[in-house]
Amino acid sequence: MKVFQRKWLLMFIFVFALTGLLSACQTNRGNEGDGGTFTFSSFSDIVSINPLFMQDTASSDAAHWLLAKLYDLNREGLVVAEPWSIAAEEPIISDDGLTYTVKLKDYAKWSDGTPITADDIIFTIETAMNPDTGSPMIAQFDKIESMKKIDEHTVEIKLSTTYAPFIYSLVFEPAPAHILKDIPVKELKAHSYGSDPEITVTSGPWLWKEWTQGQQLVFERNPDYWGEVKPKIATVIYKIYADQNTEVQALLKGDVDLVSAIPVTSNDAVKGNPDITLILEPGPSYEFISFNFDESNFPNGFNPFATQKSRQAIAYAIDRQGMIDNVLKGTGVPMNTPFLPGSWADPGNRATVYEYNPEKAKQLLAEDGWVLNEATGILEKDGHPFTFELQYNTGNSRREQVAQVIQNNLADVGIDVKPRGIDFAAWVEQNLTPGKYQAVLLGWSLSNPDPDSESIFSSKYFPPDGQNMGWYKNEELDQLWVEGYSTTDINERKEVYAKIGEIISQDLPYVFMYRYGNAIGIGPRVHYEEEDAPEPSLQTGYFFHSIKWWVE
């Protein structure tokens, strides 16, 4: 399963009243070793590991091994300076919450030996803030008023306004200023930094040695790595398979050591192997159908999603609970807003709930002017049939099944859906990033626990300067997202997000489907201490503290 990562996202500190399953869990096995090869799998290739443009989980998985972050998240989701973080200590925050002082380790360096300095931090942030760059990071930094280089390893960042989630904005991978600063910002995205191992200078514990597109990436331990904690694993292989089922077979045969997203239909087969550790807990991810509001994506400019009633009808016509029961095997939780169930921002019963009700859907469609063409069995309005293409990524067995259910459910009310699977890397570049689709079945993987989702739903962040890829505009919500992050009072924020929940569950830029978790399967060759075990609640938590893992 691959999802977009909500890069400038925020955080959800939700209570883990989650059903957790940890089978055959052995977190401290074998004697600590050094060397060896660790292989993990995916069914998607990367796009680029250039931090300024990275927004898909496949690329993020690769970057985990190659690029150090300024700060990291600990197991509780708090921002910390780990031994492998570039920051030397936690940021110093002024009493008014507007000034952050960041001190860097004075011995951190890039893989070419160049020191990592305040110039790299300032370059990355300034470049991301520039609208001409087209960076998805813009929303996490555009509340910055100024930055000052105090010395070679200290940066002072001043905000123009209160921005409650800003501390999470400091969890990012800096880009190398000495490599990229002379390239015009409009040419940065097309530059080969991030996609050519030969010129991609990195900052993490491993070096990028090989990329055979569609097959594998190879990372080797950096003998000159600067961190206080040195990596034990000598070689890391990112192996690309055709689909999730093939990944599981590779895990069962011992060809790979970790699969981060085992389909629920394979859980029993994996549990049946006592040598494999299976971790199944709801993660920070939810799935949705995104409607596109840009008329240029539809024949003759006729957008069937233009009215609220039509979108609500689709929500009523889709059997989400049936998908959870039959496709997700009961492992998901229905959602009605972008706030995870159980989180402090969850609006609860203030959100509109769309129970499966095809008759209600038909009623809304009739009220909206749709009339059934008896000859085709498809609804029409003003001579336009209610038909659209639903895109999803190939190789994802869950989405393939869910797309089929959506097609069947909507056919029952007279809507013609054409599911279309697309290779993930190509999909990101050609459809998602530029916002060129009619509807997509996709998921967000939340990178931190704050509920702010301005960059996804505000009209300030249309492509390419943000992740509002469906071109959704609601001026009342635009203002509420600002109010939500403009105070640090948790009760005031909670009230704002409850209001957002009321409005967005009525207006429906998305059909919010369900929160779900991806089972993690770990082979018997992998060892770690208990405090370094994978943490499913974090975005790339399946690699949590992997610098300290070892393999046989």
From TrEMBL:
Gene3D superfamilies for this protein: Dipeptide-binding Protein, Domain 1, Dipeptide-binding Protein, Domain 3, Periplasmic binding protein-like II
Domain of life: Bacteria
Record domain Solute-binding protein family: where: 88-453
Name this protein carries in UniProt: Peptide-binding protein
Keywords: Signal, Transport
Molecular function via GO: peptide transmembrane transporter activity
GO biological processes: peptide transport
CC terms in the record's Gene Ontology section: ATP-binding cassette (ABC) transporter complex; periplasmic space
Family per record: Belongs to the bacterial solute-binding protein 5 family.
